[in-house]
Specification:
Blueprint: H1 3-8, E1 12-15, E2 19-24, H2 40-51, E3 61-62, E4 71-77, H3 80-91, E5 96-103, E6 111-121, E7 126-130, E8 138-149, E9 154-160, H4 167-174, E10 198-206, E11 213-217, H5 224-234
Parallel strand pairs: 4-10
Antiparallel strand pairs: 1-2, 2-4, 3-4, 5-9, 5-10, 6-7, 6-8, 8-9, 10-11
Length: 237
């Protein structure tokens, strides 16, 4: 991590003239919300302004989001052109995102496709599985795969096939696999840092301008459970 990254408390995975990818920490918010905390959009603009000694305004486009307690790969566009093309990739599902989720209960099958209809409750900021005929219901699809277990927890790999509010958290809770620390969806206690054990681990896409295949992995936050699973799969990378 460079001194400038340390100054702004950001972990940059990749940067070029068109985009910047970070490994988001669980406490960080992607964009401004009701808490009033400084969002990553503001932090990264300040970082880019200082790094490149820019006199005017800095362009930065947020093309997707991660929930505040979730960690992992988050992409920002540095140009309007890249932003529009990245948004199209997300819209057309031409980008592969995989997550790791630590759950307390093993899933009913080692791998499965989950298909549900979800509806967001705005007041509770929470999604619920509902009947497909419910007004406002949206179809949600994901694939999960069991990877391995520790003495108390189980690691699942999630591939998102749609992008719904709290989709992974809601769909996993629906099959009894509540993400560790996620009290909103039924876990019995919060993590000390108010994170949840859900991490955007891998992303693959075609570069929006260069048209080259891009592949990135992001290490989960430092804690004993994440460290155990990371080292079990990746060694000391």
């Amino acid at each position: 991590m460079s001194p400038l990254e340390e100054k702004y408390n950001i972990a940059i995975v990749y940067e070029d003239n068109h985009l910047i990818i970070i490994n988001k920490k669980p406490s960080q918010i992607a964009q401004e919300d009701k808490t009033g905390d400084v969002p990553l959009t503001t932090i990264l603009k300040a970082y880019l302004k200082e790094k490149y000694n820019k006199a005017g305004n800095v362009y930065l486009g947020l093309v997707h989001r991660l929930d505040r307690p979730t960690s992992g790969l988050l992409i920002f566009a540095k140009t309007d052109k890249a932003g529009k093309r990245l948004s199209e990739l997300f819209k057309n599902r031409e980008l592969s995102k995989k997550y790791w989720a630590v759950v307390q209960k093993a899933p009913p099958q080692s791998d499965a496709l989950l298909q549900n209809y979800l509806k967001k409750n705005e007041q509770k900021n929470k999604s619920f599985v509902v009947n497909e005929k419910t007004t406002g219901a949206k179809k949600a699809e994901l694939k999960y795969k069991y990877l391995l277990s520790s003495d108390r927890y189980h690691l699942l790999e999630i591939e998102l096939l749609s992008g719904r509010h709290h989709q992974i958290r809601c769909q996993l809770a629906h099959i009894g696999c509540i993400v560790k620390g996620d009290v909103k969806y039924g876990f019995d206690r919060a993590n000390d840092d108010l994170s949840i054990h859900l991490h955007s681990y891998s992303i693959d896409f075609l570069h929006p301008v260069k048209k080259e295949p891009m592949h990135f992995l992001a290490k989960p936050p430092e804690d004993p459970i994440w460290n155990y699973f990371w080292k079990s799969i990746n060694g000391n990378l």
